[in-house]
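Q: Convert this sequence to structure tokens.
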Amino acid sequence: MKGKVNDRDLVTLAPCDVKALKSGDIVLVRVKGNVYLHLIKAVNQKRFLIGNNRGGTNGWVGPNAIYGRAIHIES
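A:
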């Protein structure tokens, strides 16, 4: 399975309202002091399950860990 965002892709980010985020959105998120692009897998009230497009999950994060949402990906 191919990723939604690959190395060297140009990604345009926009500030986001965390209340509007849903499963399938790609977000810029802080995890253990590092910042990554991740896929939102599930939403549970004020928490977001993040993971990758290859079936992996990385855990739950709160709304303060999300910095923006990908609005355009250019290969």
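The chain has a mean pLDDT of 93.
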